[in-house]
Specification:
Number of strands: 20
Structural class: alpha/beta
Radius of gyration: 22 Å
Order of helices and strands: EHEEEEEHEEEHHEEEEHEHEHEHEHEHEE
Strand content: 25-35%
CATH superfamily of the largest domain: Vaccinia Virus protein VP39
Shape: globular
CATH architecture of the largest domain: 3-Layer(aba) Sandwich
Number of helices: 10
Largest sheet: 7 strands, mixed
Distance between the termini: 63 Å
């Protein structure tokens, strides 16, 4: 087993549970193949962890285990089985969930979502390309899983029956997803419990679903008794899919969808009882966070101004580099600029199939605030 030796004191963060070894923390980097399994040792030679080497990027090694155990097909299967057992407890009877959430599930750099009979997995790490067949086999042994789509650095590998589109049920909705063109692995699963938390505020409401993507916020609002729902997204393809999903769930008479910029829709002056803002990540790096906060503040000010007194705004940030306190401060400033009083009813994160590893704050990224506007 090859060793990667750290510089003095660079093992402290890793001993506390972090799983990334940065390239500048290594004393001397040996010649290694991308994806090769290595042991990480302190400057004094003490074993820190076993992981895999990455040939590119700031992260040189991702830790897989704190023990000197074999990293093989059985190891991967155990991790996948453990992750599946937890999701089965979270969502009994459901066949859609985040099956593997990277570092939190002990498979750093890998995400895998189940959509009915298909598992869609994504990674940029060469290690998982080397173990692609073993990964697929570990998923396929589970009941109801017929196919695996593994995307490594943009290259798709398929195993079993892995169609380009899937149709499944999730939390009472019928959902259709195009796995070739969808966001993330095809769908956003992190807000699923927040959809349900929104339902009490949707009954009888005129709802605006900003950045609607496939319209799941809006469909849940309609199922909860919304009077009308307008879903807005800049993607024509997303809007078309949202219309089909609304029809599939028999809420097409309540839900309408429009290809537009949500900021422009908010400028029209129409008022709503409930507005949902769920934009894509606005800060891809730490140096973009200040600009992102400015965009969040402006967008939420416009939304607050468009909510009738006593109505609600549900607004989210999925930018990891915009932490929850900073996002809430932007919302406070937006409310002040709009000259409206706002109650904070709830502040939520991602669904628990996206667990946050306490030693790695990088695994927390979603903030969803439920506000009442007075």
């Amino acid at each position: 087993m090859r060793h990667v030796r750290l510089k003095p004191k660079e093992d402290r963060r890793l001993v506390r549970g972090h799983l990334w070894v940065y390239r500048n923390e290594i004393a001397a980097l040996p010649s290694l193949e991308d994806g090769q399994v290595v042991d990480v040792v302190s400057d004094r030679g003490r074993f820190v962890g076993r992981g895999f080497f990455q040939g590119k990027g700031g992260i040189a090694v991702r830790i897989l285990s704190r023990h000197q155990e074999d990293i093989d097909a059985s190891f991967l299967a155990r991790r996948i089985d453990d992750a599946h057992a937890f999701r089965s407890r979270l969502f009994p009877g459901e066949t859609a969930y985040r099956w593997v959430f990277g570092e939190s599930d002990g498979l750093p750099g890998l995400v895998a979502d189940r959509y009915g009979s298909v598992v869609a997995a994504e990674t940029s790490c060469g290690f998982y390309a080397l173990w692609g067949e073993a990964l697929a086999s570990a998923f396929l042994v589970h009941e109801g899983v017929e196919g695996v789509r593994l995307t490594v650095g943009g290259a798709l590998h398929t195993f079993g029956v892995a169609p380009d589109a899937v149709d499944f049920s999730m939390d009472g909705l019928h959902v259709e997803v195009d796995l070739r063109t969808g966001q993330k692995t095809g769908l956003f699963l992190d807000q699923r419990l927040n959809y349900l938390a929104m339902r009490p505020y949707a009954a009888g409401a005129r709802v605006l679903d900003g950045h609607c993507y496939l319209g799941l916020w809006g469909c849940h609002a309609a199922k909860a008794g919304a009077q009308t729902v307008l879903g807005v997204d800049t993607s024509a393809q997303a809007v078309d899919q949202a219309r089909r999903i609304a029809q599939r769930n028999a809420v097409e008479q309540i839900c309408s969808f429009e290809q537009a910029d949500i900021a422009e829709v908010l400028e029209r002056g129409e008022l709503f009882d409930l507005i949902v803002l769920d934009p894509p990540a606005l800060a891809r790096s730490r140096d973009q966070s200040k600009k992102a906060l400015g965009v969040y503040q402006a967008l939420n000010r416009a939304a607050i101004e468009a909510v009738v007194p006593g109505g609600c705004l549900i607004t989210s940030s999925c930018s990891h580099f915009v932490e929850a306190p900073a996002f809430l401060e932007a919302l406070k400033r937006a409310a002040a600029a709009a000259q409206r009083h706002v109650w904070v009813l709830d502040v939520r994160g991602a669904a628990p199939d996206h667990p946050v590893l306490m030693a790695m704050p990088e695994t927390a990224y979603l903030t969803c605030a439920i506000l009442r506007v007075l």
